[in-house]
Amino acid sequence: MSFDYINLILRPMLEGAKVTVLLFFIVIVFSIPLGFILTLAVRSRFKPLSLLVRGYIYVMRGTPLLLQLLFIVFGLPLIPVIGDYLVLDRFFAACIGFVLNYAAYFAEIFRGGLLAIDRGQYEAAQVLGLNKFQTMTRIIIPQMFRVTLPTVTNEAVTLVKDTALLYAVAVPELLHYAQTAVNRDFTIVPFFFAGLIYLVITLIVTMFFRKLEQKYHYE
Amino acid sequence: MAFIEVHSLKKSFGNLEVLKNINFQVDKNEVVAIIGPSGSGKSTLLRTMINLETADGGSVCVDGEYLLKDGVYEKGPVIKNITAKMGMVFQHFHLFPHLTVKQNLELAPRIVKKEERNAVEKRSAELLAKVGLADKADAYPGNLSGGQKQRVAIARSLMMNPEILLFDEPTSALDPELTGEVLKVMKKLAHESITMIVVTHEMDFARDVADRVIFMDKGEIVETGTPEQIFNNPQHERTRAFLNIR
After folding, report:
1. Which of A59, A93, A130, A217 lies at a CB distance of 3.0 to 4.6 Å from A125, suitable for a disulfide?
2. Distances (CA, A) of B221 to B40, B57, B212, B224, B226
3. How far is residue B133 from each of residues A169, B88, B124, measured CA to CA in Å?
4. Parallel, antiparallel, or unpaired for β B86-89 and B4-13?
């Protein structure tokens, strides 16, 4: 096994890793805020909204992400009449699927985080004259963020690996190029390198979140 | 008209009547201790006065303004205006764990009253010195002892310049050797021009510091009087039983 060969297979795989990382960032950036909005909606006193969002979370968590991706990428265009307008760029469609799915998980994580915050925090804020918005943004959300950080880390690591599902909706990414090389060259080596690249990405993600945890470990 | 007036205040949790027809008044700068057995409604009374609990009936009037009149609450802004005159110190401190001591003190004056940073910082330094914690400004609550936390909580409520300070069993969650430092700060405050209502199990504090003592039992005010009257010559059987006086 020569360096030339490794170079040959690594090049497209690293290109594919760019897609993997891009998807990761898009999903993190959009699904965390969306998840928090869903949490607030679940806690809303307006019952129909709360029920609707609970149903949404149930469906998103209760069906495979792979099914959801296939549905959005290949299923939506099959809908009569409007289907033609739902033919989206596959990567874009996959992003939507991932964000919708991960937002549901984050919503549940944040809901748990809010439950962990003592009622006394709300009372202390009220007695000091903070309004509801100030109480949420200054007192509750920062603490919720800290409480949920380890679980969010876990979810982020899962996301790195879930990006491989892009393979199933024919968006070329890291695993796709590894598989291509394996088929072409009849060697298992590309799989090892793919695994290595995933490990490096998850290591970076884990270290980043650990730094965050240390930063927000207020003691 | 007294500074604080409470008339026929009623409050139930389900079938349990926690406050039955409470009537009392507090004068400006008076220090009132509320004593009584657990479950007698002392804390609920305090919490109702500062709108942490909703009463079922009665009136609460502070400095001539009604928070609650004959069972009807005033509008939100009016209530906010009235409760802004009050501060509250909780049994379990309820400091904000993600903020330093200094930030705990300065948050509300900055974002609620929109005060100048310099003025707020000056006052927080003064108040921390006053409660003996000048060196803890940058510590997080998690690194403080219970007594230190409670002193920070007192300083935090003083930052809003309240005219009335409500204490809800401020030393009940503390180890016995830590209650002294908190009571000392409270004694210091009692000698200043601030109205204090203190729910407490510290009889010595009630005896030494309070101008007046209210004894509550089963949701009622049983007896009220000077510490001298309550502790040395209680009129009511229930008071005598509670204080172990025959």
Report:
1. A130
2. 9, 16, 13, 7, 14
3. 62, 19, 11
4. unpaired
Structure token digits, residue A188? 């298992």
pTM of the model: 0.87
3-state helix, strand, coil in chain B (%, to 5): 40, 25, 35
Residue A88: pLDDT over 90 = no
pLDDT at residue number A6: 85
Which among A120, A129, A218 is the nearest to B84, CB-wise?
A: A129
A142 Cβ under 8 Å from any chain B Cβ = yes
**If DSSP codes are grouped into helix, strand and coil, which group holds residue B191?**
coil
- Which segments within chain B are labelled E, that is strand? 4-13, 16-26, 31-35, 57-62, 65-69, 72-73, 86-89, 164-168, 195-199, 212-217, 220-225
Identify whether the C-beta of residue B211 lies closer than 8 Å to the C-beta of residue B199: no
Chain B positions in Cβ-Cβ contact with residue A120 (cut-off 8 Å)? 90, 92, 94
Task: Tell me if B112 and A127 make a contact (CB, 8 A cut-off).
Answer: no
- φ/ψ of B71, rounded to 5, equals 85, 0
Inter-residue contact A169 to A70 (CB < 8 Å): yes
Q: Do B219 and B19 contact (CB within 8 A), yes or no?
A: yes
Which residue among A123, A128, A143 places its CB closest to the CB of B98?
A143
ipTM of the prediction = 0.93
Count CB neighbours of A159 within 10 A.
20
